[in-house]
Design a protein that fits this description.
The chain has about 170 residues and is an all-alpha fold. The protein has one domain: Ferritin (Up-down Bundle), CATH 1.20.1260. Helix content is about 80%, strand content about 0%. The termini are far apart. It binds fe (ii) ion. Fe (ii) ion binds next to helix 1 and helix 2.
């Protein structure tokens, strides 16, 4: 079993991971519509990872013989002003998710729930990676600024990265 408050926090985290997937999917579609197919497909692929994060928590809850709770997922924003705006928001979002994970670790620790704390170690490390990747993309887009040719070349690079990942 999992202590009530910890279980509630884990269930809310599933919702946050699925919400992240929904946000990245919406952003990916927007970037594709704007002609940035590489960035768009990178985000649509990344949405799948967020879904997997949610499923990882679901499996843990189920393995501990507890119930998954389904909360509503809110409609993602749709007012972006270009790739930089999108990736600024993604980086901020990943920072928010990191602090949510840390809060659950603290709660589990406070309740003496070592099993959940150890389970969440993977997420703590994953968030370091997620923040770094999204910050790197944000920085590159920022450096390119108004250089459309550079942006499209970087977009092609990301498309190539996505295809490389898919063919693994
Ligand atoms: Fe995630």
């Amino acid at each position: 079993m999992i202590q009530k408050e910890v279980l509630e926090a884990l269930n809310k985290q599933i919702n946050a991971e699925l919400e992240s997937a929904y946000i990245y999917l919406a952003m990916g579609c927007y970037l594709e519509d704007e002609g940035y197919n590489g960035m768009g497909s990178w985000l649509i692929e990344h949405a799948k990872e967020e879904y997997e994060h949610g499923m990882k928590i679901r499996e843990f809850i189920s393995n501990k013989d507890e119930k998954t709770v389904f909360y509503p997922i809110s409609t993602p924003d749709s007012n972006w002003s270009g790739p930089l705006d999108v990736f600024e928001k993604i980086y901020a979002h990943e920072q928010k998710v990191s602090s949510m994970i840390i809060d659950i670790v603290k709660l589990a620790r406070d309740k003496g729930d070592i099993t959940t704390e150890v389970f969440l170690n993977w997420f703590v490390e994953e968030q370091v990676e997620e923040e770094k990747i999204t910050r790197d993309i944000r920085d590159r887009i920022k450096i390119l600024g108004e250089n459309q040719e550079g942006l499209l070349s970087y977009d092609r690079f990301l498309a190539h990265e996505v295809n490389k990942e898919k063919s693994k």
